[in-house]
Structures
1.
Amino acid sequence: MTLQALPRNGKIRFGGFFLYKRYGREIGFEEKCLSLSYQKRVKRIVLFINYKDMVNYKDLGLVNTREMFKKAINGGYAIPAFNFNNMEQMQAIIQAAVETKSPVILQVSKGARQYANATLLRYMAQGAVEYAKELGCANPQIVLHLDHGDTFETCKSCIDSGFSSVMIDGSHLPYDENVALTKKVVEYAHQFDVTVEGELGVLAGVEDDVVAEHHTYTRPEEVVDFVTKTGCDSLAISIGTSHGAYKFKPEQCHVDPATGRLVPPPLAFDVLDGVMKELPGFPIVLHGSSSVPQEEVDTINKYGGKLEAAIGIPEDELRKAAKSAVCKINIDSDSRLAMTAAVRKVFAEKPAEFDPRKYLGPARDNMKKLYEHKIVNVLGSDNKL
C-alpha cells in the first residue's frame, strides 16, 4: 500500500491501522510523520503532507465567503465583488472598504492572472490584508476570488496558490457536463475550506474571455437539482444582466424623454423570485452588474473617447436585488470607466505630463469614490464589520 493510492483527504484500513492522508496529491509532495497516537482499539498513523507549492489562504489573512454571505442574506445587503488587475485598483478597493467598514471580495479573472501574473496577485492579496490593517481595520474581511474559472485546472491552480473562493463557470456546457465539472471543483476545493460559486444560465456581453451573443435566463426548476448534485456554496444566475459596458443594444432600450438617455429593459425579478422560492436562503450571485455611470462615459467622450450607446444596469434595480438573497454583486466595467475617465482628463488638461503617478493617482482616487458610492448607496454593505 502506497500513500499515492489513498484518496485525497481520505483514509484506508490497513491491517489494524487506519492510514490517513490529508491534503494529498498524487505527485510533488514530501512526507513527514508528526505524531503517532494510540487509542484503545485502533492504532492510527497520521501523516501530514507538507507541500512546497501549496498556499493556504488562511495563512494570507483571507476568508472564504460562507459566513460573509450568511450575514449578508440575513442583513438584507450584498457584498461588493470588485475586479482588479493592478495596484491602483487594489488600493482603491481596500481604501473604500476600510473607510466604509465593508467586507469585500477581490475578484481576479483568468485574463487578470495572465496580465498581472498569478504569483504577484497572490502577494497583492496578502498585501491587501496588511494594508487594510495599516489603514485601521483590525479584522478585515477580504476574499480572494477567481471570477469565471473555465476549467478544473484553472480553479485548482488558484486554490493551490491561496485563493479563498473560486467560480467554475460551466454555463456554456450541456447541463450534465456543467454539473459534473462543478462537482469536481467543489470536491477539490472543499478539502481546503475554499468556497465555490457555480452558474446556471448564460449572460450576454463581453468581458475578458467570456463572450456570449445572447442571454439565457436561469430556469428555477433546475436550481435545486444543480445545487444538490454539485454541492456548490453559491449560485450565479441570469436575470438580464450582461457583461461589459455595452450591455444592451439601442433597440432593446427606450429613451427617457427627460434626459434623452437610453433606458435598458428591466431585470427579470420573476426569475429571481422563482429561484429564491426553490432555494430559500441560498446565496445568489449577479454577474455583469456595472451601471456604466454616464458621467464617466461623458468625461471619456469629452476628452477624446468614443463610447457610443454604453449603458448599464440601473442602480435602483441593484438596490432591490441586494435586499433579497442576492448576496454578491459583481462590478468590473464601472471601475474601468472611472479609471479611464480620470486618465483621459489628465492627459487632455496636462499634455506634457508623463509621470505615471500624476495620472494613475487621480485614477485611483476616482475609482475609490466609485467604490464607496457602490458600497454605501447601492449594495448597503457599509458598517457591517
2.
Amino acid sequence: MWVEGDLSMSLSDKDIASAIEKGELRIVPRGFRLNPAGVDLRIDRDVRLKPKQQVLVASMERVELSNRIVGFLHLRSSLAREGLIASLALVDPGFRGQLTVSLYNSGDSAVNLAKGERFIQLSLLRLGKPAIHKYAGRYQNSTGVVASRRQEKRSHTPKIMESVIQGTRG
C-alpha cells in the first residue's frame, strides 16, 4: 500500500510552489523562474568568458532547503550549446546560501552573461524520509562567490603534526 511521503519524487512546479508555501523551500529574492520541473536561477554579475577561461560565479538567489528536499544543478542547455561547461553539485538537505558555480568556456568564441540572466536550473527532489543530518558543511550560509575551502582543513594538519613531533602539543 502506497503512503504519501514514503517515496522520493522529482518536484513539479506545483510541488515547488507548495514547498515554498509550507516553508520547506525558500528562494530569495523573488525573480527566479519557476519551470515545470525546476527553478531557473540567475547569475550575480556580468561575466565575459574568453575561450578556455574558467571563472567562479554565484547565483543571485539564496536557497534554503529543508531536511526533506535535495537539489541538483544543471547548466541551461542554451549555454552548453555555446561551449560552456559547468561544475555542478548536489545541494544537500538543510543547505542555506547562495550557490557558487564554476563555469568553463570550452568553445572558440567568448561567451557573455549579463547580471540577472538565467544560467542554471535547480531541480528538486523530495526525499522518501526526512534526512537525519542536515547539511552543516563549510559552505553553509555562503554569500556571493565562495572559493574552495578544501585546503582550509588540511592546512592545519602540518602545524598540528609539527607540534606533536616537537612535543609542544599534548
3.
Amino acid sequence: MPPKGERRKQQIIDTAKEMFISKGFQSTHIGQVCEKLGIARGTVYQYFSNKKEILYAILDIIVDKAEDILDPDDLVSFINSSPGKEELMKFVEERVYRCLQTISNEPIVIKLIYKEITGTDAEISQRVSKFLDDIMHIISRETKELAANGFFNKNDDPDIRASMLIGAVTMTVYQYINHGKDYLNKSFSKTITNIYLHGAYINPED
C-alpha cells in the first residue's frame, strides 16, 4: 500500500478508536468517522468492510508491534553473541519495557478486556480473547528462551509467567484509568518491568 494510503488507513483507525472509547462501539458509525475526517464513506470501505474490522485492526497492530519487539531471532542472535550478564539484563529489560509500553499505551484494549466499551458482542469478546492469547504466546515464547539460557528459573511455567505479566499490566492500567492517574509515564512500565524481572524482595545480604 502506498504511504499516502497507509496514512489514511491509520487516520481512520485512530479516529474510530477515539470514538469507540468516548461514544461506545454500538453508537459509533462509519459515517461519523468519515464526517470527522472529512472523507467519503467509500474511502473507509477501501480499507475496511465494517467497523468491526477497524476494531480488529487495532488489536492486530498491537500484536504485530509486540511480535516485532520480542522477535525471537533477535533474542537468539543476541544470546549467541555471548553478552555479559549485565548486558543481557539490559537487553531483556528494554524488550519487556517496550512491549509493556505498547500494551499500556492503548487504553481501548484495557477497556475491551474489562468490557467497558459499550455495544460489543460475543464475537468481539472472542476476538479480544484471541488477542490476549496471541500476546501471552509471544511473551511465553520469550520466557522459554530465556529460561533455556539460564535467565529465568526453568521450573517456572512460562505460560503462568506471561499471564501474570499481562494481568498485572491490564489490571494496573485499568485502576489508573478509573482513578485518573497517569499510566503513560515511563516509571509505570519501568516499575512493572523491574518487578517482573527482579521481584520486589531485597535480600539483606546483597
